[in-house]
Structures are given as C-alpha cells and as structure tokens.
Design a protein that fits this description.
The chain is α+β, with helices and mostly antiparallel strands and 251 residues long. It folds into 2 domains: 12-90, Orthogonal Bundle (Arc Repressor Mutant, subunit A); 101-239, Chorismate lyase (3-Layer(aba) Sandwich), CATH 3.40.1410.10. It has 7 helices and 8 strands. The protein has helices at residues 23-36, 49-56, 60-72, 101-107, 129-132, 179-186, 203-209; strands spanning 76-79, 83-86, 112-123, 139-149, 152-161, 191-200, 216-225, 230-239. A 6-stranded antiparallel β-sheet has the order 3-4-5-8-7-6. A two-stranded antiparallel ribbon has the order 1-2. A hairpin with a 4-residue loop joins strand 7 and strand 8. The protein is elongated, with a radius of gyration of 21 Å. The two termini are 22 Å apart.
Length: 251
C-alpha cells in the first residue's frame, strides 16, 4: 500500500514544497526527459550536482532529492565522489512496491481475513539479532499470521519487529489491521531490502497454508528500515498456484 496522496488543486503548482512546480520536480523531470531522449546513454556521466544547482538556481539539497528519487526508480546510478550515471539497461528492472495485502485483496473485490497464530515478545536469537541490529537475547516482537482471500490461505507472514522503532506493535489487533498497515502508520519507512525465491515451505508453513509439504511456494523475505534503524524482517510465503508477482517499468 502506498501512502495516500493529496488531490492536486490549481494552487498546488507552487515553486516550493512538493507540488508539481516544486524545484526538485523540475530538476527531476528535466533529467527524466533527457534520459528518455537518450541524451545520456546507458552508463554515461550525467550533469554534476554543482552544474544542476547553477542551471536551475536551486539548492544542492533540492538537486540531491531529485537525483535520489531517480536512483530509487532505477533510472540512474550514483557513485559517491565520482558522479551520477545513466543506469545500465540490464540493471533496470521492475520495481517492487510494499503493499498492504488487505488493500490488494479488497481491491480485487474479495474478502480478506487474518488468522493470528502468534503475537508475543521473545528473546532475539543469535541469527536474528544482527538483522534487527539488536543485542542477542534482547526482546523483539514476533507475529505469525495467515492471510486468507475468500477463505483460502494466500500468505503465511512470519514477522519480527524492532521494539525500539515500533514499541506499541503488539497492542494492535491484527484480525482488524495488517502488520504492514500498522507499521506504515507508526514508523517512518526509509528503505527496504528484498529477496525472492521459489522453494518449499517449512512443515509448519505448509500446515498453516493447507498445502502439501512438497508444494512449490513463492517466498519473499523483506527487511525495512527507518533512517536510523531496522524496523522489521518478514518472511512471506505464498503457495505458487495462488499468488504471482507483477512489475512494471516506465521511464
């Protein structure tokens, strides 16, 4: 689920802030237009921050924001101390967006249900502690939830949360709100890491999903961060015949 966006009004096109006429959007669009026109071929060095500051008469912070967003979209690569380069085409791929599964299911006109199998505080294992950047043995929050679409198990969500970042996490009613929505609401998401593989679920996951032990599953492990610390690490297991990932790229 992406954060809601305010509807634009005629006065939103100002020369400051985040509206369509905001300085950083003008810089960003200029660079996107140049990339689309092949002004900077793949791997080519693009204008420096100093050159863009002079060209647009804006601050370095404004230029940095434009470049940071282009990097997040996979359009440029930035190397500290060297410069900004047009992304290599083979490195441009579909972008995974963090979505709220409830919103995804409801958006299809279907019914979403959550079954909470675990919701507690427990000591961080030696393997988990570095993932959340906490001391081994310190308390972390753990939830195990199965999400159903029209009564059919779609996802087994095994999630650990850093209490320092989301101290009220365990107080949420996860039969009424998803962990994703709760963390969107209470933390400042800065970045995310993903890994995706096709593999068999664990014996427990297969039982919770109601599938055979040898069922091929799509397994996504996602770790999210604020600017200062990890928020959560989640293992999301989907029966392969019930779920697929789709992406789109458009410069």
């Amino acid at each position: 689920m992406t954060p809601p966006r305010a509807a634009a009004t005629p006065r939103a096109a100002s020369t400051s802030g985040t509206g369509p006429g905001a300085p950083y959007t003008r810089v960003k669009q200029h660079l996107k237009d140049g990339l689309a026109a092949d002004q900077w071929p793949s791997g080519a060095l693009m204008p420096s921050e100093a050159e863009l500051v002079a060209q647009f008469g804006v601050s370095r912070m404004t230029v940095n924001r434009a470049l940071r967003e282009l990097q997040a979209e996979g359009l440029v690569e930035r190397i500290q101390g060297v410069g900004t380069f047009a992304a290599q085409l083979h490195k441009v791929s579909s972008t995974l967006t963090i979505v709220d599964l409830h919103e995804e299911i409801v958006g299809r006109g279907h019914h979403h249900e959550s079954r909470v199998h675990l919701q507690r505080s427990e000591p961080a294992s030696i393997e988990l502690a570095p993932q959340l950047e906490v001391a081994p043995g310190s308390a972390v929050f753990h939830t195990l939830i199965v999400h159903l679409e029209n009564g059919v198990p779609l996802q087994c969500e095994d999630r650990y949360v850093n209490p320092a970042v989301a101290p009220r996490y365990l107080q949420a009613d996860f039969t009424r709100i998803t962990p994703t929505h709760e963390l969107f609401r209470t933390t400042a998401l800065w970045r995310a890491q993903y890994s995706i593989e096709a593999a068999q679920a664990t014996r427990q996951e297969a039982r919770l999903l109601g599938v055979a032990a040898d069922t091929a599953c799509l397994i996504l492990v996602r770790r999210t961060f604020t600017r200062e610390a990890p928020i959560t690490i989640a293992r999301l297991v989907h029966p392969g015949n019930r779920y697929s990932l789709h992406g789109e790229f458009q410069p």
